[in-house]
Design brief:
Layout lengths: L2 H23 L5 H6 L8 H6 L1 H5 L16 H15 L3 H12 L7 H17 L3 H12 L7 H17 L3 H14 L6 H12 L3 H18 L5 H13 L3 H14 L3 H13 L3 H13 L6 H13 L3 H13 L7 H13 L3 H14 L4 H12 L3 H14 L5 H14 L3 H17 L3 H27 L1
Length: 463
């Protein structure tokens, strides 16, 4: 490698590091994406900027046909001196060295002027004077056919990237288009870059066009399409309310980058569009992979499973949510779990959960449900206790129904007097509610208990 080539290489490497530093300080907050939970598609901007020169020369260049003026020994020495001062961290000294050299610019050819301004732009980078750097790099590319193609394409790409960081989006697009026109078989990266620019300009149609073109190029060349690129395309489709394409890109994301946010987002869009089974399958896949984290993740899946009449699976999902400490054990969720166990015919599990839920509830509805379960399970003492608890807490839809259950359980405990009192209460409440059906039922029970009491008296007297 010749000394001149070494200097140029050092300039290129230095410019890349400077771009990397600028990108780290660039403000690229995307509030809308954050609200949607989407990962920022610009999270690797620093890497993109740092690799500007490498990308610019990535595609095979056309055979060199330019005849450009050569560098004189004087300019070569000035460039070498400037590089030494840069290496010594004396940026002011380097700036003065190159500026003094440029004062004699009338003596220099276009290639010499371009190289001097290229180094000057690099110095401004390091001094974090990005407007100055852009000004100098634009002078470099303005020399046109009189500078080497490699220097021109590298600088065009750098100007486009730096214009973007400076939020000069029109220039970013202009210089990238020029670069594309000069490159042979360019990669997908320039298209992805232009898509981010159009996104910032809120021109979503053009952003989508560039993203789709970039993906097509990447697929044809067999190169990797990054997660943030698919995420950006998904977001752009979302902004256009193009739900079929949102679903398709999310399906790609969950396949290639299986993460919670992608699975949950896919499930959400399926639900929004009325594909409830697909929504359930997506959440189930996320559950199986261990991606569910939030309360809504577990409760949404459990609700969908209940809707699809898979109560046992729904109960297991809610239990997992409790174990993960994603769900608090409040009365509402516990009641849902109890219902799932009950529908799954897991009576013991249902009773245990309803007992816990009933203590936390503000009304007696869960105690009411417990009383029915205890009646079905022949646990009559507990049935009476639960029915009493329901009546004490109140807030019942039909108080008379609870009196009926309580009376039946008391009857099965051979507590006929207590049972009759419960049915009398039932009839009284039913009358107040104009509930003729339960008036009749409770009246029949009262008649039956009176007859049974009389029969028992007669048996006792006969004995």
């Amino acid at each position: 490698m010749t000394d001149t080539t070494k200097i140029k290489q050092r300039q290129r490497d230095g410019a890349a590091k400077a771009l990397l530093g600028k990108a780290r300080n660039a403000s690229l907050t995307l509030v809308t994406l954050a609200l949607l939970g989407l990962a920022s598609p610009f999270s690797d901007l620093a890497a993109n900027l740092g690799a500007a020169q490498a990308i610019a020369q990535e595609a095979p260049e056309k055979k060199q046909t330019r005849r450009v003026p050569s560098l004189s020994e004087a300019v070569y020495k000035k460039l070498g001196a400037g590089q030494e001062l840069i290496d010594a961290k004396d940026l002011d000294g380097a700036l003065l060295e190159i500026q003094e050299a440029l004062e004699r610019s009338k003596r220099y050819n276009e290639n010499e002027i371009a190289n001097l301004h290229n180094m000057l732009g690099y110095i401004y980078y390091l001094k974090e004077d990005y407007n100055g750097a852009l000004r100098e790099y634009k002078i470099v590319v303005s020399q046109g056919e009189k500078i080497p193609e490699g220097l021109e394409t590298t600088t065009l790409y750098t100007v486009a990237q730096l214009s973007y960081v400076q939020e000069n989006y029109d220039d970013a697009l202009k210089y990238m288009e020029i670069w594309i026109s000069k490159a042979q078989n360019p990669s997908a990266d320039p298209r992805f870059f232009m898509a981010t620019v159009y996104y910032q300009m809120k021109d979503f149609d053009k952003a989508i066009e560039q993203m789709e073109l970039g993906i097509q190029i990447a697929e044809e060349r067999g190169t990797t399409i990054k997660e943030q690129q698919w995420s950006l395309l998904t977001f752009l489709y979302f902004e256009k309310e193009d739900w079929p394409n949102v679903i398709e890109t999310l399906k790609i994301l969950v396949e290639k980058f299986p993460k919670r946010e992608h699975w949950v987002r896919l499930a959400g869009v399926y639900g929004q569009e009325g594909y409830e089974k697909e929504q359930m399958y997506s959440l189930e896949a996320a559950y199986t992979a261990g991606f569910l984290e939030k309360k809504s993740d577990f409760t949404n899946l459990a609700g969908l499973l209940m809707q699809e009449e898979v109560p046992y699976r729904a109960a297991k999902v809610l239990v997992a949510g409790f174990k993960a400490e994603a769900i608090e054990r409040d009365s509402t969720i516990l009641q849902s779990l109890g219902q799932a166990w009950q529908l799954a015919q897991e009576v013991d599990n249902a009773i245990e959960i309803f007992e816990e839920a009933a203590k936390l509830a503000d009304d007696g509805k869960i105690y009411e449900r417990l009383s029915y379960l205890y009646l079905e399970d022949d646990q009559y003492d507990r049935c009476v206790d639960s029915a009493s608890g329901a009546l004490d807490k109140g807030g019942l839809r039909k108080e008379q129904s609870v009196h009926i259950v309580k009376g039946m359980c008391q009857y099965n405990l051979d507590k006929l007097t207590a049972a009759r009192d419960s049915f009398v209460q039932c009839r009284r409440v039913a009358r107040r509610s104009d509930d003729t059906a339960n008036q009749r039922v409770c009246g029949q029970w009262i008649t039956f208990i009176d007859r049974e009491t009389e029969r028992l008296k007669q048996l006792a007297a006969a004995g």
